[in-house]
């Protein structure tokens, strides 16, 4: 069991180290990712979310495969997104990992649900 907690800590520290303050500011409600990070102009908003819906946009605007994991690594949601709006109203308040795949590119972000 302790081994799982260590993996989770590495996951959060790895995600935290991958974000730079120039692109993800603490008080910003929109996260924009640079082109070198995989998905060009990835924007996820609002984050933190309290409305039950998030909007995911990219430059290419292709179909996106979305997976949401809880902090223990359990897959909570897996879906394909054809537009911009993703309904997450069934998620309880907490911190989640959002994995997005668009074409051959992928990105992982933290999602906070209030």
TrEMBL record:
Residues 44-113 form the Secretion system C-terminal sorting domain. Keywords: Signal. It comes from the Bacteria. The keyword Signal applies. InterPro entries: Secre_tail. It holds the Pfam family Por_Secre_tail. This is T9SS type A sorting domain-containing protein.
């Amino acid at each position: 069991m302790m081994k799982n907690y260590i993996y989770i800590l590495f996951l959060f520290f790895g995600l935290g180290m991958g974000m730079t303050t120039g692109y993800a500011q603490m008080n910003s409600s929109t996260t924009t990712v640079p082109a070198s990070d995989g998905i060009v102009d990835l924007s996820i908003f609002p984050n933190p979310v309290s409305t039950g819906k998030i909007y995911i946009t990219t430059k290419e605007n292709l179909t996106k495969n979305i997976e949401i994991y809880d902090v223990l690594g359990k897959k909570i949601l897996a879906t394909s997104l054809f537009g911009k709006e993703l309904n997450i109203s069934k998620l309880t308040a907490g911190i989640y990992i959002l994995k997005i795949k668009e074409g051959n590119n992928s990105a992982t972000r933290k999602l906070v649900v209030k």
